[in-house]
Amino acid sequence: MIAAFRERVYAHYREHGRHDLRWRQTSDPYAILVSEVMLQQTQVARVVPYYEEWMDRFPTPDALAAAPLEAVLRTWQGLGYNRRAVALVRAADDIVSVHGGAVPRDRDALLALPGVGPATAAGVRAFAFGEPDLYLETNVRTVLLHEFFADAEGVPDTALLPLLEQTLDRDDPRTWYWALLDYGAHLKRTLPNPSRRSRHHARQAPFEGSHRQLRARLLRAVMELPGSTADELAAGFDEDVARAGDALAELVEEGFLAEERGRYRVR
User: Fold this and answer.
1) What number of helices (H) and strands (E) belong to the chain?
2) CATH number of the domain bearing residue 153
3) How far is CA 166 from each of CA 89, 161, 172, rounded to the nearest angstrom?
4) CA-to-CA distance for 227 and 18, rounded, in angstroms?
5) 257-260/228-229 β-pairing
6) Which of 75, 154, 193, 196 is 20 to 30 A from 263, comparing alpha carbons?
7) Do 240 and 218 contact (CB within 8 A), yes or no?
8) 254 and 144 together in one domain
9) How many whole angstroms separate alpha carbon 222 and alpha carbon 234?
């Protein structure tokens, strides 16, 4: 069963694999880290142009750590979840100050970096260092659910991890996970998304009209009009001042903005 499963996944990859993705043409751990963070909750097609520009502007941890936050956020604008950009900057700071500018190979050291969780750490270890770590992300989860739990609902990750370990190609985890990712993306396009049968599946709330959209609008407005007040920013897109003020306070607390005498700028 395991051998047949592997051959099915590899056969799909040989014929349909996305071999041209730039982050698949390098083993640079920093480049892999950037791609893994960008790909969180974001489709590959959207990530590609942002990744290209990011790597051209901030090609190393040192370059990113030295960059003004406003330049980083402008490069990220439109990709969504701006916290990821700030986390990458903070991770670059740690990579430079703690690890001498080299992304660590050790799992615990990776997990200690801001914004790096188990899947991101495993992705860096597998794709950059060839380590046979357990990389369980949404497309990989989709494959395991489809192939081994076709009639089950509410499947926990604890049931998937042993299968992930049993099927892992330890001689070439890098290519194996690429193949799983591409097979999972294919399944999502052609079937009702199997990952919905995961106990950990969460439907993303609509962006339009959300608090997340308000935060993104405010951040963009401050970049365009530094020194604006909450009243001025709220009036710019007919928003309730109190709601805008709460969102601005969050952005200050999280390190996106600085506030002085009621006026805001990018930190």
Assistant:
1) 14, 3
2) 1.10.340.30
3) 36, 9, 14
4) 45
5) unpaired
6) 75
7) no
8) no
9) 11
Rounded CA Rg of the chain: 20
Number of domains in the chain: 2
For 228, the enclosing helix (H) or strand (E) is strand 228-229
Within a domain: 205: no
State which residues form the domain around 111. 2-197
Query: Residues with catalytic annotation?
Result: 36
Average pLDDT value for residue range 142-156: 89
Which residue's entry shows tokens 């990952």? 195
Residue 171, Cβ neighbours under 10 Å: how many? 9
- Measure the CA–CA gap between 165 and 188, rounded to whole angstroms: 23
Pair (167, 226) in one structural domain? no
Q: How many CA atoms lie within 13 A of 200 on its CB side?
A: 11
Q: What pTM did the predictor assign?
A: 0.87
Whether 184 contacts 168, CB under 8 Å: no
Kindly tell me if the per-residue pLDDT of 202 is higher than 70.
no
pLDDT tens per residue across span 215-258: 988 998 999 989 999 999 988 877 888 899 999 999 999 989 99
Measured CA to CA, the distance from residue 143 to residue 150 in angstroms comes to: 10
From CA 10, how far away is CA 232, in angstroms rounded?
56
- Beta carbons within 8 Å of 185's beta carbon, 6+ residues apart: 44, 139
92 near 53, Cβ under 8 Å? no
Query: Residue for token digits 């799992």?
Result: 107
Q: Give residues with Cβ within 8 angstroms of 231, minimum separation 6.
A: 241
